[in-house]
Amino acid sequence: MFSKACEYGIKATLYIATQSLQDQRVNLRDIAGEINSPEAFTAKILQQLARSRIVDSVKGPYGGFQISRERIGAIKLSEIVSAIDGDNIYRGCALGLEQCNAQKPCPLHDKFVGIRNDLRKMLESTSLYELATGLEVGLTFLVRD
């Protein structure tokens, strides 16, 4: 559903948020290790997230990535997805066909419209804080053991 970059972006943002809630800044190496992603790929994703003002990048020997507590509560999952994948998830064909649209629908088009609308609602109503605090209390895990 999401691109691999978007999956890593969500995981990275969640990890940064959980650490930020504990007043900790995290560096690229720690983030890449925690989400099991190559460092160079993670760096590109973090650049996109920083440009979109989802994460803050602090330079210097004590630098790293962080998100202010206020922003953690305000950021919606849809913002992270949009920063990495754009809005293609809301527009693309379920079968990946380029010519699929309302005038020339694929066999799944009408069924997928409802799923996309539900997905949009879920992404727009789920806050980063909600996800990060769920991770903090151990209800979910960022990576598999």
From TrEMBL:
Which PROSITE patterns does this UniProt record tie to the protein? Answer: HTH_RRF2_1, HTH_RRF2_2
InterPro entries for this protein:
TR_Rrf2-type_CS, Tscrpt_reg_Rrf2, WH-like_DNA-bd_sf, WH_DNA-bd_sf
This protein's source sits in the domain of life called Bacteria
**Annotated Pfam families:** Rrf2 (PF02082)
| Stored SUPFAM superfamilies | Winged helix' DNA-binding domain
Q: Name one GO cellular component term.
A: cytosol
Q: Show the Gene3D superfamilies listed in the entry.
A: Winged helix-like DNA-binding domain superfamily/Winged helix DNA-binding domain
Citing just one GO molecular function, the answer is: DNA-binding transcription factor activity
- Its name, as the record gives it, is Transcriptional regulator
